[in-house]
Structures are given as C-alpha cells and as structure tokens.
Design a protein that fits this description.
alpha+beta, Methylamine Dehydrogenase, Chain H, MetI-like fold, 3 domains, four-stranded antiparallel β-sheet, 15 helices, 28% strand, elongated
Length: 733
C-alpha cells in the first residue's frame, strides 16, 4: 500500500476516534446536565423554613397589656391592640409614621377577651360584655410619581350588646359569613354558652328583613377550657379540663352532635384551621393535633370527630394557636414561650423559635412573622417558607385530606376556593404510568415479536421486502394523530361494541387453535403439503375474520342475556366500577401502535442476524422449522429481542400526546381496564401551562420529570445488563 495513503488513513482514523470520543462525552455530559438542571429545581421543595430578622424594637406598652398584633403583607407596618381597646399602627422602620385609634369609643373602657375570627378580623369582648367585630386592612396607594404608600385602616363592622343572661361573659367569638349572617357565641362564668344569631334578607322589591334568634346551652358538667366557632358560624367546638371534645350544630335548634373523650388531660388551646374544615387542639402536655368530622360509612351522612394529623409536640402546655390565613400552617406557643411553625397536611415541623414569646402573627401572604416576648420586644422577620405543604409523605404516601373519609393517594393541584388543601401525591401518576405501559406492552410485545419471527424465518423474501418497510412506516405516524384517532374514532366505537370486543379475547384464540388442529390434520393431503411455506397466513385470515364476525353477531345477544342489555350499567351496579370511554383498552391499542414498530424492527434484525449455519445444523438433525426457531434462533437472538422490548417500554413510559388525549387524565389508582389514568408525562403537559414559576406545583412537576428520567434510566440500564448477560450466555452459538 502507498505509504502516503496509509498515513492518510491513519490520520483519518485518529481524527474519527477523537470526534467520536468527544461526541460521546458531550452526549453523556448533556444528559447529566439536563438531570442536574431539573433536579436543581426540585431541591427547594424539601428545604426547611427559616426566618430573617428585619426589625427589633421595644413596644411602649407593657407586654402583658398587649392582646393582639399583626403585620401587613409588605412588612412595612405593624399594629397592636391593647387592653384599653387602643389600636396602634406603626410604620417600619419604627418612628416614621404612628397612629392610634380608640376602638372602644362609646363602647367600653377595657377589653376582657380578644380573638382572631378571620383574615384581619378581630372579636373584642369589652368589660360591659358588649362585643365589637373589627376589620383591619392595609391598602396600597400611589401618588402621581408612582410611589407606593401603605395606608392602614380599621373599621368597626358590628357592635353587639351584652347578652340577657345574668352570668358574666368570660370569652366571646363573633363571626360573619359571606351572606351577611352574624353570629355571636359567648362562654359564661357558669360554664354555659349563649348564642345570638342575626340574619338579613332582601326581597324582590328591595325591602330588607332582619331576623334575630337567641339561644342558650346549659352548663356542661366539665369545665370548658377552650372553644372555637367555624367560619360560617354553624358549628361550635369546645374542649374541657377533662380532655373531652364537644361539638354543637348551630341553627334554629342547638344540637350536641358529638362528645369525644379525646384526651386524658386538659385541652388548653383551640382554633379553626384555615378553611374551617379542621380543628387544631393543644393540650396541657404539649401535644398538638388536628381533628375533623369523618363519616362513619360511605352511605352515612353523620360525621364523627376523629384525630387526623399529629404535629410536633411542645415541651410544655400549649397556650395559644394561631392559624395562617393563607394555607394550612399553624403557629403554636407553649408555656415556656417557644414558638413552633407546623403545616397540617404535610405534618412538617417547619420552624422552632426558642425564646419567651407571648404573641405571634403571620402576614396575610405568610411571608412575614412578628413576635412579642415577655420583655416587650417586638421582632419583625421575613419568613422563608415557600413549600410547606410538600413532604415525602404527601408526595408518595397516603394522606388524610379534609372532607375525605380515609387516607388516600390524591393528585389535585387546584380548586375553586382559596382555602383549598393542595394534593400533590405523585403515586397515582406513577401508578398510571406503569398501568398504561403494562397494557400497551401486553398488546404490542406478542404481536411485534411473533411478527418479527414470521417475517425473518417464515415469510418469502419478496414478502419480507414489503412487510418490514410497511411496519417501520408506522413509526413515522405522529403520536398526536394516533391520539386524535383513537380518542374520537376508536373510543366511541369500542364503547358501543365492548361486549363483542371482550368476546374476541375468547373467539379469536379459539378460532386460531381450531385452525391449527385442522391444519395438522390436513397435512396428510398432498395438496396441503405442497402449499408454499410462508403463505399459511392466507388461510388464517378468513378464520380470524369469521371469528371477529361471530363476536359482532353474538355480542348483543350475550349482553342482553348476561348483562341486562347494558354492560356499563351492569358493571357499575354489581362491581362499583365505572366504564370510562377513554380507558386502558384504548391506551393498549394507541400506545401499542407506536411501540410495535420499534420492537418489531429490532427483533427482526436480531433474528435475521442469527448465523444460517445454526439453522441448517438444527434442521439437519431432524428438527422442524418451528423447533429450530424455538430452541435455537430465539435463544440466540434473545439479547436483541429483549433490548427491543426495553426500548419499546421506554417509549411507552415517556409517551405524552396519546395518553394526554385518550386516557381522560384521571389520576386514580384502579387496576380495572375500564378506567383511565394519568401518567407522569401527561401530567406535566397538562399542568405546566398553569404553574407559576417557582411555585410548589412548578417544582413538583419538575420532580415528575426527574422521576421519569430515573425510570427510563433504570429501564435502559437494566436492559443493558440483562442483554449483556444473555449475550454472554448464548455466545457459544
């Protein structure tokens, strides 16, 4: 060989080796970089809450004289309410703007009790037993230069006179719902309750009718130590020194609906969690838990109080519980002044602030925290707590959500009300991904594998040249077109012919087995023996068509005799399973159609590449063609067939458009083939347009992408390990 040509070839080989090496390393680096990018977005989900101090200063009042405090959303203003009924606004930094409002002007001289009864709403019980419902607000205003200024305001919504009962009022709660219904619940010194209700309505002519109703609850034999009223004022909860939890339904009649011996110790604090579906309770030993009404059975409408969540325990008695007005977070203070921040749904202990805190409050958005200690020091903090509702349990475990009768796996990222309890369980999505892939592979793997066996080992060469390109063309059909067709054409067709389809699982294999038996019998005839090998399928097709026609013919009769003429209704009435038009049967056909070309192409190449001398040696020893395929060719080609199956599996796991259009996107965990599902990939496609950047939903969707990445990585790695093992095992062939 010419030395110059040899040298040039060596140079080209070296260049090609370097280019391939660099390209391979770049691909590996790119994949790792993508994984790192999506994983980085999910890390903040699991970070604990933290506080960043902004301002610390001493209040001019004595700390024991302050009953409540609050902070605006911009962390530029704070307010305090003292026992004299004075509302003190202070701008931050302290000293820039101060204002003092007397809430008791013309009402009372001092405040006996104060309670937070809603977002920026306070119920004040005065010394003369009158009650004021006060709303505090912070309104942003802009001047001509566009400079923003926060203007505080205080409105006295209602003033209710003292109740008629002679016993003094110890504590009072005043609530007003969205329809204007006003309710006041008073706890008296003799351990009784009095309830005042006022309802106003307006007729078609604009005339307003006001109705008032006063009721009383007789003293309970155990001392009431804490009580709370739901946001709509229709339920009264109370806790006793003996640890008993009580519930009354408030309407025209006051009915004691529940008496639960919840604790063996005094109940020391109680408040409604945001949304008024759950009740937070603190005890003398420092336990903190939430309770909720749960139905006794699926058919019962009666709800009994049950403990749903157990939160971080304090070292001493819980004295006060503050509920966030934005989510299900709770601030609790114990007798030692230690502050805990917990989230009810996730049961995460988010923050532990040691000290001698007397009062605490969150800003409306939950981004600010203000505390008051026993030295009169006010501390304003920025609270960094972006994802309190997320934990490993809420992502992968069963959680007992509000209005649910038992713990469950639920994905529900949004709702129509602000007090919605976010549900981010990924388990139904993982289940749906595996379920859809399983049914697709059941349909696709046998067809693709046996089709590859027929084309490579039995079909004549000219049929091979036609069939293989046609099957591979299937892979070029856009998945959105497949999803469109199976959702709008195939799904209604199968729904109308579901019984014939189910019969086909019996008739088609039965017809094929009958054909095989007849074929074996017909081998004794010379005409049949002389039939050219590879064309047997021509005789099978009429048998399969006849079997399918029999299914169609007998389907309505079977449905009428066995299922009362309506299979879907029979299924629901007898098994409780609903027939969804877009279900696993549809997915099996749709995903199977996309997976078959991949498995078929790789399997056919593997089978065709088995050395011909192995086939010749087997048949020379007297083996039939099928025995040779089963005992020699399939084991030799098994590494390639397995690799094709795993690649098809990976395609089915990551498919988006078909499952998005044809599954109904119902994130449920049900093995029934008549129900739909929601997969990880479809969930990302559905939810990501509505997910605000860096929100909890946004980061959970990235976590779904991480799980998809991990699943495909594990499948491909496992497939490669098994393929390599099979290759070594059958290398002797």
């Amino acid at each position: 060989m010419d030395p110059r040509l040899l040298r040039r070839n060596k140079q080209l080989d070296t260049l090609a080796r370097h280019v391939i090496t660099v390209g391979g390393v770049a691909v590996i680096f790119s994949v790792i970089a993508i994984l790192f990018l999506i994983f980085k977005v999910t890390i903040p989900l699991f970070k604990p809450a933290s506080v960043k101090p902004l301002y610390t200063f001493s209040h001019q009042d004595q700390p024991e004289n302050i009953l409540a405090l609050g902070l605006d959303d911009y962390q530029e203003n704070i307010f305090t309410i003292n026992r004299q009924g004075q509302l003190h606004f202070q701008s931050l930094p302290v000293g820039s703007h101060d204002s003092l409002i007397d809430l008791g002007s013309g009402v009372g001289s001092s405040v006996k009790d104060l309670a937070v009864v809603g977002p920026d709403r306070f119920s004040l019980l005065w010394a003369d037993d009158t009650v004021s419902l006060v709303k505090i607000d912070f309104l942003p205003q802009f001047d001509s230069q566009g400079k923003r200024t926060i203007v505080p305001s205080a409105d006295i919504v209602e003033v209710l006179p003292a109740p008629a009962l002679a016993s003094p009022v110890v504590s009072s709660r005043c609530r007003q719902d969205s329809e204007g219904r006003l309710i006041r619940v008073n706890h008296h010194a003799d351990n009784s309750f009095s309830i005042f209700q006022r309802t106003s309505s307006e007729d078609l002519f604009g005339e307003e009718t006001v109705s008032e109703l006063s009721s009383a609850i007789n003293p309970y034999f155990e001392q009431i130590s804490a009580f709370a009223v739901s946001s709509d004022g229709r339920i009264l909860f109370a806790g006793t020194m003996g640890g008993t939890l009580l519930r009354w339904d408030i309407g025209e009649d006051i009915v004691l609906t529940d008496t639960v011996p919840a604790f063996k110790e005094p109940i020391t604090a109680m408040t409604m969690v945001f949304g008024s579906q759950s009740l937070a309770i603190g005890t003398d030993s420092g336990t903190l838990s939430t309770w909720m009404g749960v139905r006794d059975s699926a058919v019962s409408e009666t709800k009994k109080l049950r403990k749903i969540h157990k939160l971080k325990t304090h070292d001493s008695a819980v004295t006060t519980i503050f509920a966030s007005q934005r989510d299900k977070s709770l601030i609790s203070l114990d007798r030692q002044g230690i502050l805990h921040l917990d989230h009810m749904t996730s049961e995460r202990h988010l923050l532990n602030m040691p000290g001698s805190h007397l009062l605490a409050a969150l800003s409306g958005r939950g981004s600010g925290l203000v505390t008051l200690d026993n030295l009169g020091t006010l501390q304003v903090n920025t609270l960094l707590n972006p994802h309190p509702e997320v934990s490993l349990k809420t992502l992968f475990g069963q959680v007992w959500y509000e209005n649910y009768d038992s713990p469950d796996y639920v994905w529900q990222s949004s709702a129509g009300s602000d007090d919605f309890e976010a549900k981010f369980s990924i388990t139904p999505l993982l289940f749906g991904t595996i379920k859809g892939t399983f049914y697709a592979m059941i349909f696709a793997l046998p067809l693709a594998t046996f089709g590859a066996v027929y084309v490579s080992q039995f079909a004549p060469p000219h049929l091979q040249r036609i069939i293989k390109p046609l099957v591979e063309v299937m892979a070029s059909v856009p998945s959105v077109v497949i999803g469109f067709l199976i959702a709008l054409v195939l799904a209604p067709l199968i729904e109308a012919q579901i019984v014939p389809l189910l019969l086909s699982f019996l008739f088609l294999p039965g017809g094929f087995l009958i054909f095989i038996a007849c074929w074996q019998f017909a081998q004794r005839f010379t005409l049949i023996r002389e039939l050219r090998h590879g064309y047997e399928f021509i005789l099978v097709l009429p048998v399969l068509v006849l079997s399918a026609y029999l299914c169609y013919l007998f389907g309505p009769l079977v449905e009428k005799l066995l299922f009362g003429g309506n299979f879907s209704q029979f299924l629901f009435q007898n098994t409780g399973t609903r027939y969804d038009q877009r279900n696993c049967i549809i997915i099996a056909f749709g995903l199977g159609f996309t997976v078959i070309p991949i498995i078929f192409s790789i399997a056919e190449d593997s089978l065709s590449n088995v050395p011909p001398n192995l086939t010749a040696a087997s048949m020379a020893l007297g083996a039939s063609r099928w025995q040779t395929v089963w005992r020699v060719i399939l084991p030799s080609a098994s590494p390639g067939i397995f690799a094709g199956a795993m690649i098809g599996l990976g395609r089915a796991v990551g498919e988006t458009m078909i499952v998005l259009m044809a599954t109904g996107n119902t994130p449920i965990m049900d093995l029934s083939i008549f129900n739909g599902m929601r997969t990880l990939s479809a969930n990302i496609a559905v939810e990501i347009p509505e997910a605000p950047v860096d929100s909890t939903l946004y980061r959970v969707l990235f976590l779904c992408a991480v799980l998809l990445f991990i699943m495909t990585f594990m499948v491909n790695t496992g497939a490669e390990l098994v393929r390599e093992r099979l290759r070594k095992k059958y290398a002797r062939y």
